[in-house]
DNA sequence: GCTTCGGTAGTCAAGTTTGATTACCAGTTT
DNA sequence: AAACTGGTAATCAAACTTGACTACCGAAGC
């Protein structure tokens, strides 16, 4: 799964109605250009595709006052809602090891009820464990791990990564169960989008971490 | 960076001369279809692209004895060698967090001298640290991390991941410095390809870990 | 002797991603 | 007032990826 659909659906959904540039801006606000493939081309493509598939409804709108070409506003459809939650649940549970999907999942998890988020994360840990066992079973040759030579280091990396992730997930579950954050149906939701005219504190001009990579 | 070029160059290089199917088989032997986008289409595409770019030299060959369409054999050119080592060094040092690049880097690191591998890995750790600092600096708002709400968990995940990786890298450096594995210029290299006619123990039919994901 | 099956080797269309580029307007300089 | 700068909004070609499909041969089974 690529994270772009989840991100775009989530952004449109939080706005109620949004055009491409708005989505693009939100994703930048969330830092998504740093940890996902959220380039303009991908975003506009995703919007069009999902409109074609009936997940979004497109409204043709006159050119904005702020200049630029005529823009299209999108609104999420019931089918889109459904897809959104399906993607979100999948992103939270499946052990996929891609940063973009994980980060998006965390960003949107509060759209689910608290109990469900916890349950999904626990399922995630179960799957990590399962995967870990499968790797261990499958890749250790009869003559012991030494036989693999330096290739064994790859397996070692995977196991290390899996353990670190399970660890992290357990930590987050603890905080959620301890009452942290505001989930669906618990009053004022966390505001995660820029309202019209609001300054984006993370806009270009600042130094971003990926510059250092 | 996508890992496919590194993988294909490395495979061709180890063979001296190889056709697409051989490369494809090696990658399967290494388990690459599980942790990278090494599908047949991508492999053949990469071979053709790199041949066009002068990184590989293509020899048109008559149909094999084993049936099938006429095949093309590829050989790495000096430019290809150079590109290979550039990609490999980059994969080892840059903190890229993609499993495929990392795994490929480990698989091929023994093509470098031992001292250089260690130096590159140390540089990797330095960059992870640098990245970690940048994230911490940049994403902590004035009002303390609590202001971020659940979004702070994303940052937390990154830091957790970065620490786990630095940890792992330090472990591997220790083993390498302790004399483990056989690096370039140290005698008989580790055999990482299937020779003609050899059975692939990981060929289809077995259960692979990703089935469980 | 014929048919089926599995392995060998590769192509292709459809979809996705990338990075550069366009076009427009408002405000600011020169 | 003409030229420049920067933000808004989007498009496009080229490259890459995906998954299904083709074509061929040898061996095993009936």
From TrEMBL, chains A, B:
Lineage: superkingdom: Bacteria
Annotated Transcription regulator PadR N-terminal domain residues: 8-84
Protein name: Transcriptional regulator
InterPro entries associated with the record: Metal_resp_DNA-bind_regulator, Tscrpt_reg_PadR_N, WH-like_DNA-bd_sf, WH_DNA-bd_sf
Species this chain originates from: Streptomyces spinoverrucosus
Gene3D superfamilies assigned: Winged helix-like DNA-binding domain superfamily/Winged helix DNA-binding domain (1.10.10.10)
């Amino acid at each position: 799964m690529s994270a772009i659909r989840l991100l775009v659906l989530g952004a449109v959904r939080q706005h109620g109605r949004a055009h491409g540039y708005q989505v693009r801006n939100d994703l930048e606000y969330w830092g998504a250009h740093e940890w996902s493939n959220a380039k303009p081309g991908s975003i506009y493509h995703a919007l069009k595709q999902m409109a074609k598939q009936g997940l979004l409804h497109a409204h043709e709108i006159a050119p904005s006052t702020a200049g630029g070409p005529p823009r299209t506003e999108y609104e999420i459809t019931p089918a889109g809602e459904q897809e959104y939650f399906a993607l979100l649940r999948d992103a939270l549970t499946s052990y996929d090891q891609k940063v973009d999907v994980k980060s998006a999942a965390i960003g949107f998890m509060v759209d689910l009820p608290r109990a469900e988020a916890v349950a999904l994360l626990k399922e995630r840990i179960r799957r990590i464990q399962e995967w870990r066992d499968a790797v261990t079973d499958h890749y250790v040759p009869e003559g012991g791990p030494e036989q693999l030579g330096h290739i064994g280091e790859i397996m070692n990396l995977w196991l290390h990564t899996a353990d670190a992730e399970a660890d992290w997930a357990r930590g987050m579950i603890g905080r959620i169960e301890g009452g942290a954050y505001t989930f669906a149906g618990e009053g004022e939701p966390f505001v995660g989008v820029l309202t019209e005219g609001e300054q984006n504190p993370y806009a270009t001009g600042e130094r971003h971490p990926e510059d250092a990579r």
